[in-house]
């Protein structure tokens, strides 16, 4: 398991709220207290507020009333209420059955002239009043006034969560809430600690002076809405839609002389009076995202089991944006395809039943193949706990759901990897036209599933994704793929619901001066300990972060690397190797664990350094938690493609468009040179100028030599018996320009026959370059300490690359007093001061000529060495990182 310690913010928030709940649990004498879950739903919540639910004709739940009642009784509530949306049908049905219950409903109310909806729990009304309330709910002011006149009890549930129709609400909205209501749900079972704690603190801030000031500001009389408008009370509710957690969170109602009053009054009437008088306290558990995740898991299972075709014409004629309609059409088709996979449907049904305590059927258990036995084991544990030890149910959920996800994810990626490797062995993907076409998808989706075939029924030649035989692949991975998708989708939706109005929460915390979320960056990368420039730069960055305790943690995924201060290492669930990059392994993290780390780590923004898995996960977290995500561009992939392939203009343009679509998903881009920045904000890429930030690298001070000592010890080459030494350091690959070195060395040796060339590094072109440069010394990969020794003993660094976005090797060399000759391109030209710390040239001939002149000028060598060190010292960690933090909105001063 990945080792991770939650942030101080999260731990203190949790401890404070749990202490509050402990105090509330003993607020009233046990023999004068009744329990009720004031907020739960069943099948009569059949018209959802969400547009997608209405488009797809999906109710909020299929839960039968009797099943909800059983769940509430299992949680030992004293009185039942069912608060369905805009109706009390379930309460009336229970009343007809002679079951004592508190009549209630959750009305969706609106503010006049404002596209904003809120929910209001309302209790104690008659059938006639229910109809009137549905008429008045379109004006929340009149709704609240009517409830007060008719002595109806109202509670504002989840006060910090409401429907805004994509408009951002102002916290002034809470001022109206403070005037209109006196009872607030400060413990919602489907919200996390932060939201519940903020609600509680806000309610505590509502003293008489504050409420009177709000009333005056909005020209309202608080006594029009409440008999005692300055006495605020707190309640709790499970907000349960599936009967899984019903009654585990709720409200304690104090009834003085309870036993005596029960002789003449019903429990429901006593609770209603207790609510009117504000004698309440919340009880129960905060589920964080686990409860909501399980709720969405169960909901999806029921959708898969129960959903019917919504009808194409009806869907398209329904009000709503075309985008929403098309997405719902895709969901409908996906559900119809899912219904074809009986194994997956059986699992979903089994999981759904386990959440209500029904253990898997014997035939189902026997029919499960060996790789999926751990899944059934976890499902059985869930069912058993729900039946026999419900107090531990949430803890078991926290353990079992990640176990299920880890099992199916491992199987999915292992099978996917096996299939792709098999396919690629028969049809290897090359970096050419064939490679680009693999990114195309046929418009006929069945062709993608079944594979493209000619008139004789034979598979056609590879021209798009159908050549990978997706149909065959899906036969192997359908269940784990669907299971992974369902789990990830449920977890994503849970986080998105909880943090959808994050800006509003931040504003409220600032206004209250408490529970303010820390400003902290999680920096994601696929590469940290590999032999490449990205890893080297990030390792240097980590040391500066650790030294100055910056609010940044770097997260990577690796099977052997260990976590340390400001470095989080996740264990991979699987890995891929890409032959094009020296078989470099890309490790795949557990996305559910990554979500937990992000939330409990107290992060509120993301930086990502690599486009592969972590790039996708960065965008996932950004959307799930409503936080900004920034991309740090170490590599110019467009340049890489152009220099390592023979793509024509149209093929290259397709890659550019894909990169543009990808980078535009981020809230900002960090780049390392002005040329790259100009390209990113040009029409070719279309990024907004204010979202593209310049940054830089630096060299660790511990490696920088004393420039005076360097100058004294290094004797001019021309007067020394030691042969002049030229150095190339970096990846030995075509895009790095290494095949210019033979021509350069041939020109130099004509004038300086005893010159030596050292090549430090490894790469795919190493063997070919050895044949072209038989007299050069190849060191292979060497550690930083050895590399810096080469810098200090060499006379000149040659950098024939036109690909480097920055050129860490340039800065490293110069920090060790080694001048550099490089092409006048991108990153190097922004570091090298031409004719002061080295030379900027246009071609190999110029590079050779400058080297010859430099090696023959001892006076210039001494000056260049000193200048190189001074220039390198201008790149230091503190100002670079502090500027980066400022660009993402964190100011350290």
UniProtKB/TrEMBL annotation:
Enzyme class, broadest EC rank: transferase
GO molecular function list: glycosyltransferase activity
Gene3D superfamilies the record matches: Glycogen Phosphorylase B (3.40.50.2000), Metal-dependent hydrolases (3.20.20.140)
InterPro entries: Glyco_trans_1, Glyco_trans_4-like_N, Glycosyltransferase_grp1, Pol/histidinol_Pase-like
Keywords: Glycosyltransferase, Transferase
CDD domains xref list: GT4_PimA-like
Coiled coil location: none
Glycosyltransferase subfamily 4-like N-terminal domain mapped to chain residues: 532-682
E.C. designation(s): 2.4.-.-
Domain Glycosyl transferase family: 712-870
Stated name of the protein: Glycosyltransferase
């Amino acid at each position: 398991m990945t080792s991770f310690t939650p942030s101080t913010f999260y731990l203190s928030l949790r401890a404070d709220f749990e202490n509050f709940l402990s105090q509330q649990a003993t607020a009233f004498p046990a023999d004068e207290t009744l329990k009720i879950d004031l907020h739960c739903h069943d099948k009569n919540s059949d018209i959802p507020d969400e547009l997608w639910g209405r488009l797809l004709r999906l109710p909020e739940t299929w839960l039968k009333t009797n099943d909800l009642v059983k769940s509430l009784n299992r949680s030992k509530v004293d009185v039942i209420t069912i608060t369905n949306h805009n109706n009390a049908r379930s309460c009336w049905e229970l009343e007809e059955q002679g079951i004592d219950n508190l009549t209630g409903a959750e009305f969706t109310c609106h503010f006049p002239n404002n596209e904003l909806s809120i929910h209001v729990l309302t209790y104690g009304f008659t059938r006639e009043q229910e109809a009137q309330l549905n008429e008045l709910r379109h004006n929340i002011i009149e709704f609240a006034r009517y409830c007060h006149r008719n002595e109806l009890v109202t509670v504002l549930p989840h006060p910090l969560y409401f429907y805004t129709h994509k408009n951002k609400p102002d916290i002034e909205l809470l001022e109206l809430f403070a005037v209109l209501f006196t009872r607030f749900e400060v413990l919602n079972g489907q919200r996390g600690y932060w939201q519940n704690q903020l609600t509680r603190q806000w309610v505590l801030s509502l003293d008489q002076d504050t409420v009177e000031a709000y009333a005056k500001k909005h020209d309202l009389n608080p006594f029009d809405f409440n008999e005692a408008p300055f006495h605020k009370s707190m309640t709790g509710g499970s907000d349960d839609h599936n009967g899984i957690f019903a009654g585990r969170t709720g409200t304690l109602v104090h009834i003085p002389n309870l036993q005596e009053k029960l002789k003449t009054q019903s429990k429901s009437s006593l609770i209603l009076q207790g609510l009117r008088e504000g004698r309440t306290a919340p009880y129960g558990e905060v589920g964080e995202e686990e409860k909501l995740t399980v709720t969405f898991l169960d909901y999806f299972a029921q959708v898969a089991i129960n959903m019917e075709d919504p009808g194409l014409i009806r869907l398209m004629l329904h009000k709503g944006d075309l985008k929403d309609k098309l997405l719902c059409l895709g969901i409908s088709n996906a559900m119809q395809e899912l219904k074809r996979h009986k194994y997956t449907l059986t699992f979903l049904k089994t999981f759904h039943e386990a959440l209500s305590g029904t253990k898997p059927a014997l035939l189902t258990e026997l029919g499960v193949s060996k790789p999926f036995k751990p899944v059934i084991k976890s499902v059985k544990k869930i069912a058993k706990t729900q039946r026999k030890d419900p107090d531990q149910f949430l803890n078991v959920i926290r353990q079992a759901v990640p176990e299920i996800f880890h099992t199916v994810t491992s199987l999915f990626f292992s099978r996917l990897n096996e299939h792709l490797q098999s396919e690629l062995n028969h049809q290897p993907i090359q970096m050419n036209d064939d490679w680009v076409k693999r990114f195309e998808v046929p418009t006929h989706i069945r062709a993608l599933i079944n594979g493209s075939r000619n008139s004789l029924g034979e598979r056609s030649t590879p021209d798009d994704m159908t050549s990978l035989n997706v149909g065959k692949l899906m036969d192997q991975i359908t269940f784990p793929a669907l299971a992974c998708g369902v789990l990830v989708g449920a977890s994503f939706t849970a986080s998105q619901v909880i943090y959808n109005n994050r800006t509003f929460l931040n504003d409220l915390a600032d206004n209250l001066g408490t529970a303010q979320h820390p400003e902290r960056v999680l920096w994601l990368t696929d590469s940290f300990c590999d032999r490449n420039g990205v890893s080297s730069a990030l390792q240097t960055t980590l040391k500066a972060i650790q030294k100055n305790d910056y609010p940044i943690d770097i997260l990577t995924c690796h099977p052997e690397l260990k976590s340390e201060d400001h470095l989080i290492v996740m264990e991979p669930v699987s890995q891929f190797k890409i032959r094009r990059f020296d078989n470099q392994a890309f490790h795949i993290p557990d996305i559910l664990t990554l979500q937990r780390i992000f939330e409990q780590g107290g992060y509120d923004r993301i930086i990502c350094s690599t486009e592969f898995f972590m790039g996708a996960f960065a965008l996932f977290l950004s959307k799930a938690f409503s936080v900004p995500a920034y991309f740090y561009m170490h590599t110019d992939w467009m340049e890489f493609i152009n220099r390592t392939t023979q793509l024509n203009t149209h093929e290259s343009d397709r890659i550019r468009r894909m990169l543009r679509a990808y980078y535009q998903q981020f809230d900002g881009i960090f780049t390392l040179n002005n040329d790259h920045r100009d390209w990113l904000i040009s029409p070719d890429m279309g990024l907004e100028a204010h979202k593209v930030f310049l940054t830089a690298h630096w060299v660790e001070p511990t490696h920088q030599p004393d420039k005076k000592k360097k100058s004294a010890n290094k004797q001019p080459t021309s007067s020394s018996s030691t042969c002049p030494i030229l150095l190339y350091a970096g990846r030995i690959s075509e895009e790095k320009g290494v095949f210019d070195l033979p021509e350069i060395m041939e020109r130099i040796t004509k004038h300086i026959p005893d010159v030596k060339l050292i090549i430090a590094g490894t790469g795919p072109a190493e063997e070919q370059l050895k044949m072209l440069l038989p007299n050069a010394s190849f060191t292979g990969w060497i550690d930083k300490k050895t590399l810096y020794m080469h810098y200090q003993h060499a006379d000149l660094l040659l950098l024939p690359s036109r690909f480097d976005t920055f050129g860490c090797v340039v800065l490293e060399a110069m920090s060790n007093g080694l001048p550099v000759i490089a092409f006048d391109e991108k990153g190097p030209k922004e570091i090298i001061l031409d004719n002061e710390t080295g030379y900027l040239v246009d071609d190999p001939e110029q590079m050779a000529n400058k080297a010859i002149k430099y090696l023959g000028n001892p006076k210039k060598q001494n000056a260049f060495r000193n200048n190189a060190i001074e220039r390198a010292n201008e790149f230091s960690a503190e100002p670079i990182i502090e500027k980066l933090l400022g660009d993402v909105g964190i100011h350290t001063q």
